[in-house]
Amino acid sequence: MTAIMSPANSESTPAQTQDDRDLLFYEGRLNRPTKAKTPELERSGRLRHVIFSGQFSVDLLEELAGVADAIRKLSKHRSGQDFLINLLHHKRAMLYFTQPSTRTFLSFMAACQILGITCNEVRDPQTSSETKGETRFDSIRMFSSYFDLIIMRSPIARLAESCAYLMNDLERSGNRSVPIVNAGSGADQHPTQALLDIYTLQRTFNFSGPNDSEHNSRFDDLRRLPGCENLSKGLAGKTYAFCGDIGRGRTVRSLALLLSNYPDVRLVFIAPNHPTLVMRDDLRQALAAKNVRFYEFDSFEQQLDGRPVIEALDALYMTRIQREHDTGDDAERYAALDFSRYCLDMDLVSRMKPYAPILHPFPRDQHFGEIPQEIDNDPRAMYFRQARNGMWIRSALLAHLFDVDGQILRYFHREFSA
C-alpha cells in the first residue's frame, strides 16, 4: 500500500504557515506542463477532477453541450424533471466557497438540485474549524469523509489543484477520495466559467431561430446581409476579442486557452497599457506554443483587417477592472489612464457585426460602467443567457463526473427526441 506523505513533512521556515507548507509540498507536481498533469486528473478516459480548462478537448466540449441541451429540454417536462432528480439522489456535494461568489455558487447549487444531489456549504471560513487552526487540507480531507464531491472556490492560486493531488494520494493508499471541482482558484483558472462561456458561444454560433424551417432559417437570413456572405456555423475560424482586465482575469485566461483548441481562430486582447492589466507572459507563451494568432491592442479603434477591431470581431468578451486586487502603486498609476476607452456604448455596439455576441462573466461594475444597462436589450447581449447556461452545462459536467451522462442521452432520445 502506498504511504501518504503528509505536506507537514516538507521542509519549511518558521515564517511559513502550515497552509504554505501544504502548497509547497505539491510544488513539483504543480509546476509541470499541463499535458503531464492531465492523466492524473482522469480515470478510465473520463474526467475525475476538474481543475483547469486545458482538460476540455473540443470533442468533450461537444459531448457536454449535447448533454446540457438534453438536460435543459428534459427540465421543461414533469416526467423529465422526475427522471433527472432521481439520477443522483444518493450523492452529496460540499460547496466550499471561501471567496465571495453569487453566480458560480448558485449555478452549481442549481445544477446539483437538477440531478437530485444534496448540497451543503461552507462560505465563510470563520464558521469552520479553520478558526481553531485547522488547515485547508485537513478541511478538504474531512469534507471527503462526508461528501461524494467537493466544489471549491478560493482566492488562493493552485489550491484546488493541490487538493486534487491530495485526493489522488488518498486513493492510491486505499483511503476515501472524491472528485475536486475548481470553481475559481486565485488569478489562475476558472474552468467551469470557461465551460459555460464556450457553451454560450456554441449555442450562439449555431445560428438557429424559433422560426427556422426547411425552406429558410436565421442562418440563411444572416448570410444575406452585407459582409456576412461567408459566415459559417461553429466556433472555428472566428475572431474573439477580450476587453478590460486581461492580466488578472482568470475567466479570460481559461476561455482563451479553450478557444485556442479550435482551428483558425484569432484572439484579440484589448487592455489599458498597465503592467497588471495587460496579458501575462505565461498566456502569451501558451498561445504562441499552439501557433494561435493573437493581437494586443489598447483601443477598440486599432486596425485589424484594415478596419477598427470593433467592426472586425465575431464575439466580444467584456470584463471589469478587478479593483479588489489593486495595490497602492496600482491606484497611483491608474490616474494617468483613460478607462472610458474600455467601456462599451451604444455607438460602439452599433458598429459590431449583426450576429456578434457580447459576453461578460459578471459581476459587472456599475461604477466602472464597462457595459451600460441600455445595451442589455440588444439581441447580441448574451450575458444573462450566459449566466443561465452555466446551470445547464454544470449539470452536464456533474453528470459526466458521476458517469450518468449516457443515461441522460439514452432517456432523452427514447422519450423526448421527437
- Overall number of strands: 13
Strand order in the sheet with the most strands: 9-8-7-12-13
Strand content: 5-15%
Counting helices, strands and paired strands, the structural category is alpha/beta
The overall average pLDDT, rounded, is 90
- What is the CATH top level name of the largest domain? Alpha Beta
Seen as an oligomer or otherwise, the chain set is single chain
Percent helix among the residues? 25-40%
Biggest β-sheet strands, sense, barrel = 5 strands, parallel
Counting DSSP H or I runs of 4 or more residues, the number of helices is 17
**H-E order:** HHHEEHHEHEHEHEHHEHEHEEEHEHHEHH
Give the name of the CATH superfamily of the largest domain. Aspartate/ornithine carbamoyltransferase
CATH topological fold name of the largest domain: Rossmann fold
> What general outline do the C-alpha atoms trace?
globular
Number of individual domains: 2
Low-pLDDT segments: 8-14
- What is the CATH architecture assignment of the largest domain? 3-Layer(aba) Sandwich
- State Rg: 22 Å
Describe this structure in words.
The chain has 418 residues and is of the alpha/beta class. The protein folds into two domains: 18-189 and 390-413, 3-Layer(aba) Sandwich (Rossmann fold), CATH 3.40.50; 192-209 and 232-389, Rossmann fold (3-Layer(aba) Sandwich), CATH 3.40.50.1370. The protein contains 17 helices and 13 strands. It has helices spanning 18-25, 27-30, 34-37, 58-74, 78-85, 103-114, 136-146, 159-172, 191-204, 218-223, 250-259, 281-289, 309-312, 328-334, 346-350, 383-401, 405-415; strands spanning 42-43, 46-47, 92-97, 118-122, 149-154, 180-185, 239-243, 266-270, 293-297, 303-304, 307-308, 315-318, 358-359. Strands 9-8-7-12-13 form a five-stranded parallel sheet, covered by helices on one side. Strands 4-3-5-6 form a four-stranded parallel sheet, sandwiched between helices. Strand 1 and strand 2 (46-47) form a beta hairpin. Helix 4 (58-74) crosses helix 17 (405-415), helix 9 (191-204) packs across helix 11 (250-259) and helix 9 crosses helix 16. The longest helix has 19 residues, at 383-401. Mean pLDDT is 90; it is low at 8-14. One of its GO terms (molecular function) is amino acid binding. Belongs to the aspartate/ornithine carbamoyltransferase superfamily. Residues 48-202 form the Aspartate/ornithine carbamoyltransferase carbamoyl-P binding domain. This is Aspartate carbamoyltransferase. Residues 237-400 form the Aspartate/ornithine carbamoyltransferase Asp/Orn-binding domain.
